[in-house]
Design goal:
The chain is an alpha/beta fold. 34% of the residues lie in helices and 22% in strands.
């Protein structure tokens, strides 16, 4: 039996951990958040209860493995109390990083620090109640620009149009650098918001861009069947307010703030569509337009967090080059400065490829990565035995309040009771303090009843 550290308890990390524990190794999972689940807990849309509850059950099953240990509330990073070098001091036989993509793609625009400008990841964390985002100001106004045309953008729009209890939304405008044929959201997801689409304004917008997209051979009359099937499926749909509109072939150029420091206007560059590598690309012109918006949320994908401390390039954490088969997934971390693989260090899930796919894909990636680790372990040096209790003590000596899997089970009980009391399907505490207090209280109640 060898010891593997898994850093990050989202779907990729947990399913990788399960595979390695089931193969008989001792697995120690360290996670930044108190609760396991990553984006499955704090990203998936709040009303998708069935999916979330199902995943929570699967994660609880993973944590129940006796040779798998969980230490939550432990951020690892070069600027954190616990660094990767601290973990190396335990000499684990391997380390798997499954930390997702926690960095934010900067827009690099003048004015981007204005109030009311948010990255999609932060906004999603906020409405899914991940501390500390849950208690920060993510106020939205009446006219909101959402930048991007993927499923994350649609989730955010859904929140703004339907589910935000504090919403003041009158209009959400989706700003996309390319055209209607490049929309990336799934039909199923867009169906949740299609009734808000102002069909009249949408037709006007198609008319506005039709000549420009014809330049790459796109025929505007085919948009409905290609990327907006809701137009065919619900031809008589009446507009449900607040309204949803689109602004195609437009890239944010400058954010303007009012005297209160909040965004009040967005200047966009008008783009052309040009052919590129068998697909299309946007090409800026010198023409601009102004959109009156008081909130802007950019959903343009995420990047890896360089502060984790793994070797990192522009494309994220670096993995072993594989010129023979550039498309094959590579899990081994590679240090370009030393020009060598870091032995026994792996990345899986979104930590390997940022923003890549759904939970099922992250799970698969975690499991395939775990197979590579298992193969490596067959010939890896035995190393000194690692005691989970010693790891916990060392983490705590660094001022970290470690949350164990037993604590998570107690927290789950408290949250279940709260949900019942409030008549909710599920309940979540929105700050770390409340979760830690709830765990402590539950522990002391258990002691009293045992006395
Ligand atoms: C808005 C949104 C909605 C989505 N909706 C769906 C959906 O409806 N259905 C679906 O199937 N998929 C959905 N997905 C995709 C799905 O959530 C991902 O595929 C999956 O969660 C990726 O798993 P992961 O384990 O690689 O990363 P993550 O889920 O991001 O997990 C990363 C884990 O690492 C931990 N961590 C991060 N940094 C550190 C650190 N420095 N030290 C220690 N721990 C760290 C985090 O606490 C977290 O637990 C959605 C994604 C987003 C963003």
């Amino acid at each position: 039996m060898k010891t593997v550290f898994v850093v990050g308890a989202g779907p990729a990390g947990l399913f990788a951990a399960q595979k390695m524990a089931q193969a008989g190794h001792q697995v120690i999972v360290l996670n930044r958040d108190i609760k396991p689940g990553g984006l499955a807990e704090y990203g998936i849309y709040p009303v998708k209860d069935k999916m979330k509850i199902g995943l929570r059950k699967q994660f609880a099953k993973v944590l129940s493995l006796s040779n798998l240990h969980y230490f939550g509330h432990v951020p690892v990073g070069s600027e954190s109390a616990v660094t990767i070098d601290d973990l190396r001091q335990f000499s684990p036989a391997a380390m798997v990083f499954s930390v997702g993509a926690q960095g934010t793609k900067s827009l690099g625009l003048p004015g981007e620090n204005a109030k009311g400008v948010y990255s999609a990841k932060d906004f999603v964390y906020y409405y899914n109640q991940l501390p500390p985002f849950a208690s920060r100001d993510f106020s939205t106004g009446k006219r909101i620009a959402v930048i991007g045309m993927g499923n994350v953008a649609v989730d955010i729009i859904r929140w703004l149009l339907q589910d935000d209890p504090n919403r003041q939304t009158e209009e959400v405008v989706i700003v996309a650098r390319r055209g209607p044929f490049e929309a990336k959201f799934d039909e199923k997801e867009f169906a949740h918001v299609q009734m808000h689409l102002d069909r009249q304004l949408f037709q006007q917008e198609l008319e506005r861009v039709k000549d420009k997209i014809a330049a790459v051979g796109q025929d505007i009359s085919k948009v409905a069947e290609a990327t907006f099937p809701a137009l065919v499926k619900y031809p008589d749909q009446e507009l449900v307010m607040p309204r949803l509109t689109f602004r195609f072939l437009s890239s944010p150029k400058e954010i303007h703030a009012g005297p209160d420091g909040r965004i009040n206007r967005l200047t966009v560059t008008e783009n052309l569509l040009v052919p590129k590598n068998g697909g299309t690309a946007s090409k800026g012109t010198d023409q601009t337009a102004d959109l009156d918006v008081d909130t802007m949320i950019f959903a343009i994908g995420d990047v890896h967090d360089p502060k984790l401390g793994l070797p990192c390039s522009r494309d994220g954490y670096t993995t072993r080059p594989n010129p023979e088969d550039p498309k094959a997934p590579v899990f081994e971390v590679f240090d370009p400065k030393k020009n060598e693989v870091e032995p026994g260090v792996y990345v899986v899930g979104w930590a390997r490829r940022a923003s890549d796919g759904l939970v099922g894909i992250a799970r698969h990636d975690g499991e395939v990565g775990a197979e590579k680790v298992l193969h490596y372990l067959e010939s890896a040096p035995e190393g000194a035995p690692v005691s989970p209790q010693a790891v916990q003590r060392r983490l705590e000596s660094k001022g970290v309040k470690v949350v164990t899997k037993e604590d998570i089970a107690l927290l789950g009980k408290v949250e279940e009771r709260e949900a019942q009391k409030r008549g909710l399907v599920s309940f979540k505490f929105s700050d770390d303090e409340s979760m830690l207090n709830a765990i402590e209280k539950e522990k002391s109640n258990a002691c009293v009843s045992a006395d």
